[in-house]
Predict the structure.
Amino acid sequence: MKSLEELAAIRNKMKDKVALREKEGDIRIVVGMATCGIAAGARPVLNAFVEEVSKQHADNATVTQTGCIGMCRLEPIVEVFEGGKERVTYVKVKPAMVPRIVKEHILGGRPITEYTIGAAE
Amino acid sequence: MIRTHVMICGGTGCTSSDSPKIAEAMEQEIVKLGLQDEVKVVRTGCFGLCAMGPVMIVYPDGTFYSRVKVSDVPEIASEHLLKGRIVERLVHRDDEAGEKVEVPTLKDIEFYKPQLRVALRNCGVINPENIEEYIAMDGYSALGKVLTEMKPEEVIDLVTKSGLRGRGGAGFPTGKKWLFASFNKTPHKYVVCNADEGDPGAFMDRSVLEGDPHAILEAMCIAGYAIDAHQGYIYVRAEYPIAVHRLQIAIKQAREYGLLGKDIFGTGFDFDIDVRLGAGAFVCGEETALLTSIEGNRGEPKTKPPFPANKGLFGQPTIINNVETLANIPQIILKGAEWFASMGTEGSKGTKVFALGGKINNTGLVEVPLGTTLRQIIYDIGGGIPDGKAFKAVQTGGPSGGCIPAKFLDLPIDYENLKSIGAMMGSGGMIVMDETTCMVDVARFYLDFTVDESCGKCVPCRIGTRRLLEMLDKITSGNGTLEDLDKMEELCHYIQANALCALGQTAPNPVLSTLKFFRDEYEAHVVEKRCPAGVCKKLLHYEIDPDKCRGCTACARKCPVNAINGVVKQPHVIDQAKCIKCGTCMDTCRFGAISKK
């Protein structure tokens, strides 16, 4: 280690990798990962969320999973919980939709109505 | 991209209950499920709640699983990691008024809520075998700051202002120690880390070394810069294999990253650290004995002065700090003296780690601000005494400390308060005792330990403690007199005043404090020839109540020395001359006919 910059570079590189243990996210992105969800393609969606949240630096959001919520025909289902706000339920989510959800909803605060359960019903 | 971290405790406690196998099985399951690019297993240091081990925490949700078995791993992997369903039956539960309350995440657990983790901040949070994870937690930034922005005197001044005192026992101000060593202008000086943790029941130093070894290396470098030393030694006992292994990995990594060795951060400052293994002698925790042992000699203490700060290792000025003391240093540098001094009491700043053991529900490691009361530690964090038994005393400071009775439960704990009631901080071991503990027997236990561990160099310790033990033996076997109690007290004061080192000087503390607070128990042994707690074997006997005995012969068959006689379906009798008071008959009897008197 020859300089403080070198140390800072390692720190910044690693910070993202351990951040997930400390993060107290105000926003929770919950992906339905029951058998129905996985069969409908929830895994790539989950991974896409993890990647986009990190790429777009949505530092206040954590990505977790949940089981079946009973609407198997609409899987993959992703719910977004935010303190003090009504939860938003996205249905039939595909990895391609994820960057927009993170950008407009998680960072921008504007849920994308056409992806939500209301639009599908 | 990794979305989930599975933290599995790799401390000594959880390792002994198979956590390495759990981690291995988890890694295999993850591969089996094809999750290896999404889920990572991290082996960490101690989480502190050792009673509930092996412990596993799953992030980002922070689900806290306790008492995990290898056979539970496939279920956790397929349910939680793959499908996101928490395995409810393994989630840790707090015991509230007899009802089990489910506590899904770490920060909600009663055990952790009142804690404030400074020395243990990274234990259970990072992978101790990965220097980059330590760097991510601002590791080595304190060293960088010190080397590039601060003068050595400023470092010493900062540590002095923080009010940090030695966490190994005596509580000497750390800044002052560094200052004395810095006054000596000699080409060779040393920084020594005292990791010879020897108090029965204390394991905080081990946990720091196992969970956050780089913090110690960084702090030693800082100390080296402050006093102009270029070589450090960590003296750790060989019976801490995990700690030694992780220290060696940490030193190797720090050298590879240029954080130990020549020209650190390009500032021209050189510092290196080596590990020295101790064979486990208790006296080697005493600083002069420890230094003698590093030099390759038999671990015996020397008279002070000269203090190590003037004439220590190899006759050179040396500072010697305990592991927990050092663990605080990088945080003090980064967050400032005021931050550290804002925690604690007037004379005792910061936090202290206590190792809870004995008759307590949550055995484990606890870090709280100094000034926290015993009641908070034992009841709020420790979860109280098991089986609804009554609290009798808590023993702090190991064989050098004293027993604190119930009336001091609300005393704020700091160095001065503990000293004023005849106990001491020591390294922070806390052994809780309930109504079934005999205080005379406790004093005897600790003295037996010091007699064993006395190095034999000085007479007061070598012979004095042995005579003291003989008197205690006399009392516990029912042959003591009231005069013996006074003689014991006199001998205690004599040893305190005349022993060469702290081992001998503090050895009488368990006797003196029990004599002071539990004299009635001593008197019961001496006058009534009775052990109130029913522990001292020679003072109790077992009896069969002829009205309750059905003559089932179960006890007679179990008795290891054939001391129970009787005919089938007739009341049995115990032959007191043969009885070894093992209590097996009482445990065997289904009719409650046997009692201990």
In short: Chain A has one domain: 24-120. The interface with chain B takes residues 1-4, 7, 10-11, 13-15, 17-18, 20-23, 25, 30-35, 37-38, 46-47, 50-51, 54, 62-67 of chain A (CB under 8 Å). The mean pLDDT of chain A is 86.
